[in-house]
Design goal:
The chain has about 150 residues and is α+β, with helices and mostly antiparallel strands. It is about 50% helix and about 20% strand. Strand 3 and strand 4 form a beta hairpin. Helix 1 packs across helix 2. The mean pLDDT is about 90.
Length: about 150
């Protein structure tokens, strides 16, 4: 079994919305062969809680406005460290970068086929690592000024 056309449409729209809000490392997996509860997972991350919320809100708004769907369940909203949007056909995970590294969902689903994403979403690959390096460089530069 493979992800349905509807699931792919939802993933495409959600991943573009995430990319438009500058999400990092957007990736989608077809999990339909290993899970009976959903067809696909979309993973995205952001370096801070405010951006996680912004990405989640944009995905929700875009899927409702363009495709007329609302999530049946939304979890993790209060802390905004890992927000899950369940649309039945797809499940969207937007994580704070630290949670993304710690839980490593990619490792769990690496045997599942990746779904094709829009160019903007693909371009986000490696952004979390770039951001972490910039933060480290800025931190060491600030530390140098304190000496």
């Amino acid at each position: 079994m493979t992800a349905t056309d509807r699931s792919i449409e939802l993933i495409t729209t959600a991943s573009q919305a995430a990319a438009d809000k500058l999400a990092h490392d957007i990736i989608a997996y077809d999990v339909s062969d290993v899970l009976s509860i959903t067809d696909a997972f979309l993973l995205a991350s952001a370096p801070n809680d405010r951006q996680v919320k912004s990405i989640v809100d944009e995905i929700e708004e875009r899927l409702n406005k363009e495709l007329g769907v609302k999530p049946v369940r939304r979890e993790g909203d209060r802390e905004a460290r890992w927000v899950l949007l369940d649309y039945v056909d797809i499940v969207v995970h937007v994580q704070h970068s630290e949670e993304r590294v710690f839980y490593a969902l990619e490792r769990l689903w690496k045997d599942c086929p990746e779904l094709e994403l829009p160019a903007d979403a693909k371009a986000t690959r490696g952004k979390a690592e770039e951001h972490a390096q910039l933060q480290a460089e800025e931190g060491s530069a600030d530390f140098g000024e304190l000496r």
